[in-house]
Design brief:
Blueprint: H1 11-23, H2 26-32, E1 40-43, H3 49-54, H4 56-64, E2 74-80, E3 88-96, H5 99-106, H6 109-125, H7 130-135, H8 137-143, H9 145-159, H10 177-182, H11 184-194, H12 205-208, E4 217-222, E5 235-239, H13 240-244, E6 252-256, H14 259-264, E7 271-275, E8 294-298, H15 303-315, E9 320-321, H16 326-331, E10 337-338, H17 352-362, E11 370-371, H18 379-388
Helix pairs in contact: 1-5, 2-5, 6-8, 6-9, 9-11
């Protein structure tokens, strides 16, 4: 039985190489702005004279796979074995005269034509965006007509760096708010070309582009009915600005990122509960009255829970964690879960015990990717631990 082809190049190998050039956008860029890359010679590894002597039949079968030449390519030949087995003409390179020829070889001619038309239309909107079409040709193909709409938004944002309106008020024909929300990355890559010097930072897309944004809101519960402004207003939501101006007359605040826990917290003298979603406690920064009272944080026992604690404590140094310790973790082993993606941040605002537990979690101790969600804690345990957290 003949051995397998010993590393000789197949038409599939050349196709793989051509696909790499397609997938990195090189072929489409060459159709738009030809360089000296073409004619392009794709080397074909062929049988040597020794291999012809040892397995001529296998070499002959291999040579037949190159007849006729692949579509779009011309073959170069070399003579092998003239002084030994006899002269044999074998393919040694597939030559593509242009990017269009290599695209035809891949059967991507229709897509290339679509790219050319789209690139022309985008460039007609603003010639500066030609650089974007060359840098991201596959993105242009992927988004199709949506790329034209995104370009119009990017051009408007370039001309209006501080619109001072809500995104909902953007009035561009054929552009609705949901389009902008679902094409943020596409628009931003175009804007980066139009306004390379503009700094676009922050998680809030509206604020990043000078739009007005809905004010941050804070939800609170007065756990001491005597401190509520009215009995019916024990649970309320307000803007962060309004929260900052409160003078609630409480001795402590307990913050939690879980809504069920927030709602289930029992009555406690002189205490207010504050609900924040994940890293959503930024609204507390301007509430200077919090600096003069006891502030507790109750979060998940996982790396991100300690990240939120550290962030909160960076603004309010007196914050104390509640039920985020090894005792609580070990007491609820049956509820251990998995933290899908751990934080590797170096947290600066944890005390010694918190830092030790955070490091253990990062290192897979007592279990890799360990997470204990706060809403899974035994409620009787919670009711016992909360009063113990209050200063006497």
């Amino acid at each position: 039985m003949a051995a397998k082809t010993p590393g000789w190049t197949s038409t599939a190998d050349v196709r793989t190489a051509a696909l790499r050039s397609w997938n990195n956008g090189e072929l489409l860029r060459e159709t738009a702005q030809p360089t000296t890359l073409y004619p392009r010679r794709r080397t074909i590894k062929h049988p040597s004279a020794t291999q012809l002597r040892s397995d001529y039949a296998l070499a002959a079968v291999w040579a037949q796979t190159w007849a006729p030449a692949p579509s779009g390519a011309a073959l170069e030949y070399v003579t092998i074995g003239a002084t030994t087995i006899g002269a044999n003409s074998l393919p040694c390179a597939a030559v593509f005269g242009s990017a269009a020829d290599e695209i035809a070889f891949l059967g991507r001619g229709r897509e290339a034509a679509t790219f050319t038309a789209l690139a022309r239309n985008v460039t007609e909107l603003d010639t500066r965006l030609e650089a974007w079409t060359l840098a991201r040709p596959l993105d242009l193909l992927k988004h199709g007509a949506d790329a034209l709409t995104a370009a119009r938004v990017a051009i408007w944002l370039d001309a209006n760096p501080a619109p001072g309106i809500y995104l909902r008020q953007l009035s561009l024909p054929g552009v609705h708010t949901k389009f902008v929300e679902t094409h943020r990355r596409l628009i931003d890559t175009m804007l980066a070309v139009l306004a390379p010097g503009r700094v676009m930072m922050g998680k809030n897309y509206s604020l990043r582009h000078g739009f007005l944004a809905a004010p941050e809101r804070v939800r609170i519960r007065f756990l001491d009915a005597s401190t509520a402004p009215f009995p019916a207003l024990a649970d309320m939501e307000m803007t962060a600005a309004a929260f900052a101006l409160l003078n609630p007359g409480v001795d402590r605040v307990i913050t939690t990122e879980n809504l069920v826990n927030f709602l289930a917290l029992p009555s406690m003298p002189g205490t207010m509960a504050v609900f924040g979603d994940g890293y959503g406690f930024a609204a507390l920064r301007e509430a200077h009255w919090l600096r003069n009272i006891d502030v507790l944080y109750w979060g998940d026992i996982d790396t991100h829970g300690f990240g939120i604690l550290a962030q909160l404590r960076s603004h309010l140094p007196q914050v104390r964690s509640v039920m985020m310790d090894e005792q609580t973790l070990l007491a609820h082993r049956e509820f251990w879960g998995t933290e899908q993606k751990q934080s590797r941040a170096d947290l600066k605002h944890l005390d010694a015990a918190e830092s030790a537990l955070y490091t253990n979690l990062q290192n897979g101790i007592p279990q890799p990717f360990l997470r204990l969600e706060q809403e899974l804690l035994n409620w009787e345990y919670v009711l016992q631990q909360l009063p113990a957290s209050f200063p006497r």
